[in-house]
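Task: sequence design from structure.
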């Protein structure tokens, strides 16, 4: 049996097969069977016939598995439909590959079948329908099976972002989609709390510069406001930068770096969603009263619901396909999480995010041990400040090497979309070294995805916290021009030439995995 060939959650599949009959091939690919036997066929591919479920509006599978001779279903793999030519045999039977996934050759297979493509050196995950209903989505969670999430490991080095929960390493860009969801689910379980998805209804209403978003979820309704400036029109919408704010009117901390750029500005006050000193008084917990999420995930949920509303409301004049999000300090942590957990964000710009943002827990802990004091904000401090994270995360304080992730995997979730990390060298509490090392480890993920030009890490000192220096203006302008406005610009570099202390990143000290080049 092909236990290691494809990362399918065999136990769950076997339980599902035991609980139901008349299953369809789509369930092996993460899609349900169509609920109605009269569902019309909207699309055909190598994995069978596909329809749109009238109850949910989502893709569903029509082609059933009724052949008792299809022995491979009990192991979580469909039967082969086009070939009788075995690529490999084991004690369970004969195996072949169709549509980029393994299949079992039925016992009664016969005839001269078409030849199959040669076996890839490392078979990919089961393919998804080649024509998804809409790829401009918040995430791909419902298309992916999330396996057992480890909550403790023993690893002093940076965990391998390319190693799936099943132990297989991803080898294609398509496989990264579900690996990214595994990473997201791990952060949700251990650090941020679960992000609620798919509310019943989201609506937006504009009055002057104020835009009100109203969310209805399981009988609970909540509203929050944002401020929109310099928007376009329905006929000519503008890209926009979502600037996180806490009532100071800053709308982000990019300062004059965006002057002259023809983009709209959306000021997003996180206090409207979950104020740090009283989170449950905000809109997030009114809409999701049973949630245990920290404030950072609550803010991320709010930005996603804002995008939901803007996507349906062209009258506002915002080009939702070209959105950026930015914030500084604690709001830099939030900006990173927002970009990581919503794939509709085209450009993510976390600024001086420190611990819990684009800074490595393991390296920060090492620096503090070497200094003999809390030189960099430690995990215990960050885990208890501002209700940013779920309360149990503090249990990893002093046990950072047991985390199954580190923050390079959060920054890596943004890939292959654009990411500009802005750091302030010399701010001890923010962690000049662990932030820099995170910046360098993140590049490995963007390189693997062939997205090197979509990533820049810049670190410059000699200025106040959250006061962007002129020396970092060009990076901001280049990223906005290229990824929001579609203009030529030079991006893709690691720049820490203006640091306040030597940076001696040793890749072999922290990384014991190889960086693949994903096909």
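Answer:
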């Amino acid at each position: 049996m092909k236990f290691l060939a494809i990362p399918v959650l065999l136990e769950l599949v076997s339980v599902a097969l035991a609980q139901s009959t008349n299953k369809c091939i789509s369930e092996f690919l993460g899609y349900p069977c169509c609920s109605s036997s009269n569902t019309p066929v909207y699309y055909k591919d190598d994995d069978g016939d596909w329809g749109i479920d009238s109850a949910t509006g989502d893709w569903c599978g029509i082609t059933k598995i009724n052949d008792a001779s299809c022995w491979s279903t009990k192991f979580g793999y469909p039967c082969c439909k086009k070939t009788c030519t075995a690529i490999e045999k084991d004690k369970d039977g004969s195996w072949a590959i169709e549509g980029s996934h393994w299949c079992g050759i039925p016992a009664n297979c016969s005839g001269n079948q078409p030849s199959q493509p040669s076996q890839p050196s490392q078979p990919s995950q089961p393919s998804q329908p080649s024509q998804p209903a809409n790829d401009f989505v918040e995430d791909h969670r419902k298309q992916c099976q999330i396996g057992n999430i480890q909550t403790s490991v023993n690893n002093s080095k940076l965990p391998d972002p390319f190693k799936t929960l099943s132990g297989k390493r991803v080898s294609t860009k398509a496989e990264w989609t579900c690996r990214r969801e595994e990473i997201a689910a791990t952060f949700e379980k251990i650090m941020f709390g679960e992000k609620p998805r798919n509310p019943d209804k989201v609506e937006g209403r504009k009055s002057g510069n104020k835009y009100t978003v109203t969310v209805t979820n399981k009988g609970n309704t909540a509203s929050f406001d944002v401020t929109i400036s310099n928007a376009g029109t329905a006929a000519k919408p503008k890209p926009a930068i979502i600037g996180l704010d806490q009532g100071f009117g800053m709308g982000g901390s990019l300062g004059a770096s965006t002057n002259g750029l023809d983009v709209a500005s959306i000021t997003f006050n996180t206090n409207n969603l979950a104020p740090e000193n009283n989170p449950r008084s905000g809109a997030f917990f009114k809409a999701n009263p049973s949630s245990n999420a920290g404030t950072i995930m609550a803010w991320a949920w709010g930005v996603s619901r804002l995008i939901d509303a803007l996507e349906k409301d062209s009258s506002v004049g915002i080009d939702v396909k070209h959105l950026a999000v930015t914030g500084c300090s604690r709001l830099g942590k939030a900006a990173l999480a927002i970009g990581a957990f919503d794939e509709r964000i085209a450009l993510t710009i976390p600024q001086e995010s420190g611990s819990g943002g684009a800074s490595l827990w393991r390296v920060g802990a090492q620096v503090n041990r070497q200094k003999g004091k809390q030189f960099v904000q430690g995990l215990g401090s960050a885990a208890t400040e501002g209700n940013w994270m779920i309360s149990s995360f503090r249990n990893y304080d002093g046990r950072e090497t047991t985390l199954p992730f580190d923050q390079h995997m959060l920054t890596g979730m943004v890939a292959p979309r654009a990411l500009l990390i802005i750091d302030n060298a010399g701010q001890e509490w923010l962690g000049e070294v662990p932030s820099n090392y995170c910046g360098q480890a993140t590049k490995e993920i963007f390189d693997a995805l062939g997205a090197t030009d979509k990533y820049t890490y810049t670190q410059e000192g000699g200025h106040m916290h959250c006061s962007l220096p002129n020396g970092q203006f060009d990076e901001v302008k280049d990223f906005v021009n290229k990824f929001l406005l579609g203009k030529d610009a030079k991006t893709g570099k690691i720049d820490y030439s203006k640091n306040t202390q030597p940076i001696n990143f040793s890749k072999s000290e922290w990384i014991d995995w190889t960086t693949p080049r994903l096909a």
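Residues 1-22, 111-133 have pLDDT under 50 and may be disordered.
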